[in-house]
């Protein structure tokens, strides 16, 4: 073994970690809280009522998954009350199922699953129902994911029947 080879390997590793951190920081800035980076506690009414965002769909969810794949631990998601979504990208999957029976739900709970290829996507979430026209929040709950097969899942009781469901999530 050459003298100094270990130092070179450490330097290469440091540079790689720096590149990953730079990429994550760039993604955070690009998306911001409104796009799903970090937690969002602002007024979340609909754009048509002078709000800052509507629900997240495939394209937006793929960007949030990109954050997770880059190492982000805090994200936020916003879904339409009747929406069912499943998006997989970069070894991560996010799936949301509505509570409403007319759209395939069980009539009681919204479900959110998060998984990754390593099988360690345990998370906690603050869930809230949001009025689309005013941003009023109701039914705030602190939830902890539970193992559901190879995924982690939370069940969030539908209480208010508001237009949106928002999750502020921390990957553990």
Automatic annotation (TrEMBL):
Q: Which superkingdom heads the taxonomic lineage of this protein's source?
A: Eukaryota
Protein's recorded name: Uncharacterized protein
Q: What organism, scientifically named, is this protein from? A: Oikopleura dioica (Tunicate)
């Amino acid at each position: 073994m050459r003298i100094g080879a270990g130092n070179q390997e450490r330097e290469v590793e440091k540079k790689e970690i720096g590149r990953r951190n730079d990429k994550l920081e760039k993604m955070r800035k690009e998306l911001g809280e409104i796009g799903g980076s970090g937690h969002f506690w602002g007024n979340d009414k609909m754009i048509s009522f002078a709000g800052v965002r509507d629900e997240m769909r495939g394209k937006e969810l793929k960007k949030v998954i990109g954050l997770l794949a880059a190492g982000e631990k805090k994200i936020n998601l916003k879904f339409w009350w009747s929406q069912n979504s499943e998006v997989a990208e970069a070894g991560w999957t996010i799936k949301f199922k509505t509570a409403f029976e007319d759209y395939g739900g069980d009539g009681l709970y919204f479900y959110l699953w998060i998984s990754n290829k390593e099988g360690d996507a345990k998370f906690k979430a603050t869930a809230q129902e949001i009025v689309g026209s005013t941003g009023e929040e109701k039914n705030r709950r602190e939830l902890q994911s539970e193992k559901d097969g190879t995924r982690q899942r939370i069940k969030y009781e539908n209480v208010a029947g508001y237009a949106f469901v928002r999750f502020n999530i921390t990957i553990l």
